[in-house]
Amino acid sequence: MAAAVEPRWRQATFIQDVRSRVSASQLTRFQKMYTEPFFVINVDPVVPAPVRMRLTVSGSQQATYVVTLQSTGLFKCSCKDAIMTCRRNGCVCKHVCFVLYRVLRHEGLDFFDNLQLTPDEVGSIASRASQIQIQEVDRSNPPHVAPRPDQLHFDFCHSKRPHQIEAGDDCPICFDALLGSDVMRFCPECGNGVHQTCIVKWMEHRSTCVYCRSKLWSNYRGD
Ligand SMILES: [Zn+2]
Ligand SMILES: [Zn+2]
Ligand SMILES: [Zn+2]
Ligand SMILES: [Zn+2]
Question: Tag placement on the chain: N or C end, fewer CB within 10 Å?
Answer without folding.
Answer: N
